[in-house]
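INFO worker-7 received task bundle
INFO bundle size: 2
INFO processing item 0
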Amino acid sequence: MPVRSERTYAISELAREFGVTARALRFYEDKGLLTPLRDGQARVYRGRDRVRLQLILRGKRVGLSLQEIKDILDLYDLGDGQRAQMQVALKKFKARIVALEAQKRDILHAIESLKEGIAFLEGRLAAPASPEGVAAARAFEKEARRRLGEGG
C-alpha cells in the first residue's frame, strides 16, 4: 500500500484562506499556538496547524484570550481521547457565556439610557424657544461669524 503524504500549506495559503496576515500566523507561532515545520527558511504548515488555526480564530471570535485558547489546544495530545481538552473547553465556554450575558445586560442598559436622553432632548427641542433663548442664540451666532471672519 503506497504511503500517502500529508497535505501541507504555505504561509500565504493559510493566510489567504482564513483572511489573516502572515504576520498573524508568525505571531501565533511565537505564542506556541502553531508549530509549522521548516523547509529552509519557509514555514510548512500541516493539516493539524490548519485545524488549530481554525480553532484559534473561532476562540478569538467569541472572546477567548490567546492563553485560554492555548490551554485548550495544548490538551489535545494527552492520549485521553481529548476528554481533558473537552472538559477545559466546556468550562471556559460556560464562563465566556456568563461574561457575554453580563456585557449584553450592560449594553441594553446603555441603549435604554441613550433612548431616554434622546426623548428628553427631542422634547426640549420641540418646545418653542423663549425670546431670551432666541436672542442668546443669535448673539452667539453673530459672535461666531465675527470670529471666523465672515462679518456679522
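INFO item 0 finished
INFO processing item 1
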Amino acid sequence: MASALRSVLITLVLLFPTACLAHESAIVEACTKLVHDYAYSRDHDDPEGYANVFANNGVFLFRGQRFEGRAAIRKRMLDSGGQTTRHVMSNVRVTVETPEKARVVSYVTVTIATATELPIQTSGATALGEYHDVCAKTTEGWKIQKRQFVDVFTLGD
C-alpha cells in the first residue's frame, strides 16, 4: 500500500509542472489572440468585434482619453469611421500573474488614412507605440480588462 501511494505521489509531483505549463500556455495563447483580434477588428471595420475583446467593464486609455465599458469603446471606433487603418502587432509578451490574470505588452505600428480605395498611397506610419494590457478570465473567456496605449515614437513632418 505504501509503495502504491508513493508511486501516485511521485506521478503527481512529476505531472504538476507539466499541467501548470499547459495551463500557462493556454493563457498566453488566449491573451495573444485578444491582441490580434483587437487589431483585426479595428482594421476591418468591425465595431462589435473591436468592443468584444474587452470585458464588459473594460477600460481603454488612449492619449489622455478614457473609454470605459464596451458601449464607449464601440462608440470610439464608430466615431472614427471613414478611416482605413492597419495595426501591425509584434513582440507580444504575456506575463501570467494568476490563473485569472495576465499582463501583456505588445508593440504596435499603426498607419491611418482617410482614403478607402485600395491601394492607398501614404507617407508611412502614423503611430509607433505599445499597448499595455491587463487581461482577465471572465465568464465569457479571456478579455482585456484594461488597455493603455503608450506613444514610444512621435512622427514629425
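INFO item 1 finished
INFO post-check item 1: The chain has one domain: 2-153.
INFO post-check item 1: The radius of gyration is 20 Å.
INFO worker-7 idle
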